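Journal club side-thread
Mid-discussion, someone asked how the predicted structure for our own chain would compare to the paper's figures. Pasting it here so we can look after the session.
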Amino acid sequence: MSSTPIVAYRLTRLAFERDRTIGDSQVRATTAQLVAVELIDAKGNVGLGFAQSLFTSLPDAGEIDRIFAAEAWPALEGRHPAALALAVTRVRGGNARRMGLPFEESLQHAIWDLFAKQSGLPLWRMLGAQRGAVGVYASGLDYHLSDHDFTELFGNARERGFLGYKIKVGHPDLERDLHRLDLLRKAVGTDRPVMIDANEAWTAQETIQAVRLFERAGHSIYWLEDPIPRDDIDGLKMLRHLGISRINAGEYLDLTGKRKLIEARACDMLNVHGQVSDVMRAGWLANEANVEVTLGNTFLELGVNMALALPGVRWLEYSFQNFDHLVDEPYAMADGLIHGREAPGHGLVLSDAARANGGALPHVTSAAA
């Protein structure tokens, strides 16, 4: 299939209630605010991505279209997906800024989806993957859940066969974090890894105090994620050298920040997320330094494509978010593994119901190009 340029786009605004309050020691969210971004080439192929506003309501469909047309479309119209996906750009001055709405990741997903479709390959195969499945760990986004809901969520994860469990910590009362670990042990047993994520709630000394308390209570922590602020490289290096747990960091850093983290030898694991080009580049840097890469939350688990392609990736994060109704068919998971799709592209297609009404959920409108 030959390459053809992008000639049109379609935007669909989606907003609905989440099925639980999600969040961590710093933030919480009860609603999903999304824009499905579809880029269309001259032969009618469609590349799909989702823009997500985590904590603020999106404007109406007309304003979303205005912002996209002004800030995103000029760099896309008439361009070939391959050229956009592989480009190395030099952004300087006032051009080094975020868009008015968070379209950046959705555009990478849509562009790479189109690129792979035009190549006639599943995205994970086009990225070089030689395996079709990767392990999945259960992540609760559970900080604001009641003890009952926390226990029920992870008990369900145990029944579904996830290969590990990650909980949110960083509560002002450290005993509450310990209590949650106790509840987790009762719900899932002790035969699979347990990870904790503090979302930068602690100082380095508080981190040491917390992990030692957990260890004295019999909890073995497989990895410690973002325990301290992202730019405290010296603190992360100290924690890593102490060996109190594997240090998983990088979630909040851009590609430049990830490079600095790797160069400083300040993490055992580099946490990457959804932007395909940046994830693959970060994975190359990590591989050069012999640092393990872990795939954090990606929308509808689209990160499975990069996880399969990057050498040494053992984990993809799964957080039980009620997004599956947005696409015709989500990625398949069984026995603790998630599988790539065989269809060309990333394999996710916006459902007709979501396009029309968000799967019978309220407050959904559509804006077309």
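Post-session note: The CA atoms of residues 105 and 275 lie 5 Å apart.
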